[in-house]
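URGENT: need a sanity check before tomorrow's submission.

F., can you look over the Sulfurtransferase record below? I want to be sure the sequence and structure line up before it goes out.
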Amino acid sequence: MTTTYIVSPQWLAKHLNSALLVIDCRFSLPEPELGQQQYDSGHIPGAYYLDLNKHLSSPVQDHGGRHPLPNWQTFVDTLNLLGMQSTPQTPVVIYDASRFAFAARLWWMLRYLGHGNVALLDGGIDAWIKAGLPLSRETPPSQVGRFMPQPQADWVVDIDYVRQHKDTPGTVVIDARSADRFRGEREPIDPIAGSVPGAVNYFWKDLSTDAGLLKAPDELAQYWRGVDNADEVIVYCGSGVTACVNLFSQVVAGKPMGKLYPGGWSDWCSYL
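Structure tokens as predicted:
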């Protein structure tokens, strides 16, 4: 599965009893406990649950955004409890119920730490249920893993880097939020509306269908053609979550993956 980025419910069902690690990342920004509740009510058999706030982020500070990247050692300890191995790499499939919004964050984090054998479930848990496949309420036991991270430090940029490079010829800064939030017409989460000056808008939901299915690689390649000649691409959203859907789709499209500004608009506007 090393070069597979997306799998179908049927593929996943066929491979559930293998050495596959399945992770549920359902979450709701307005209702932070909803994802855990949904997992407890029924999940793909054998799946573990990782929470955006508790496992995929570190505590919020004055700056750094609403979902700072986690303490990496703490995160590695969590992965080891799921039985994650680096040699050979444990195959991982991640799903959510939000058109990859939260699953892609974990996909990016694992790739950042050097774990390439990871894919997303096309259509998320809704596609699994629609296919008539079973759910479980059983939480799998903790495991003993041996995950050895190899961080890709140049995949991440901070606000100082963005400030210094955003106006450099050949650099494209991408805002993954909705067009109205990008234009500053509406801001439902952060205290100030707007966007990073000079950024362009590529909305993360454009990359999937209304049913949560990822668009075809050739369609994604066409979507990203506007940055084909860029020397550097930096992607942000509100807090480094849905921007990862853009990054995931770039890889699926066969394009170079941009850099993540995880603080995003919530970090940028904290300095205004």
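My own read: The mean pLDDT is 97. Residues 72-81 form the longest helix (10 residues). If you see anything odd, call me.
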